[in-house]
Amino acid sequence: MENTNTNVIFKRRGLAFYINIYFKIIAQDIKSKMSYRSDFIISTVGMVATNIAGFIAFLIMFGKFPSINGWGYYEILFLYGFSLISITPTQCLLDNNWSLRRYVYDGDFVKYCFRPINLWFYYVSEVFDVKGLGQLVFGFVTLIYAWIKLSLPVTFLLIIETIIALITASLFMMALQNAAAASCFWIQNSFWLLDISLKMKDYAKYPVTIFNDVFKFIFTFILPVAFMAYYPSLAILRPDDVPLLTWLSPVIGILAFYASYKLWMKGASKYDGSGS
Question: Closest Cα to residue 169, out of 95, 53, 80, 77?
Fold first, then answer.
């Protein structure tokens, strides 16, 4: 259902208002989760164990090879850490998208349509996955370790470039998940699309050049896996050989995220509240 009043009010509200509201909503979500400490601790340990298992599998797979298709071990390790950091905002901030399909088909999504704030903002801000912060720390440790081994300089400019690259990569992952989640407004059995969007992060850990031409094209122009680590990180890893897509990544990332947001809002505007 179209909520004209909400849209008008949203336009009148500034960034400071939404930041303030966001932290208040998140505080309540974290308090509710911490009330079940055993569940929180077990799930956090499980998340850490999953990352450690993935890292061990990475070491087994690539540890015995000095390079793969021109990419050294520590360069690939850099991409691994980079991808873990870049997908963390999706896991922490957009975790509620996994419940969107259930809310839509049960008819419970209608409760979000009458709040005097932006619909997408209110829905995604209701849940914050604290467990993802452990993945963030793990990713930073891996990235810093690879940075040292690669003898990359530590300069103000390079740090700024790295931050921009990480934000850019995060926008692509968030866009992919947003669009996949929004499909439930049109497709009844849409969970497989959301599941695929999650699995795409596994391919983001590797340079796109190790794949054949078909997958290079798919991971660049159809499913933007190559933009979740490879293209943005080239400005740091190989500054003397940076392709045009790397420089265009921030702009494309913003456009991709905005398009996914508009798709999500378009689907929400068509929601009639009847459920399945």
Answer: 80
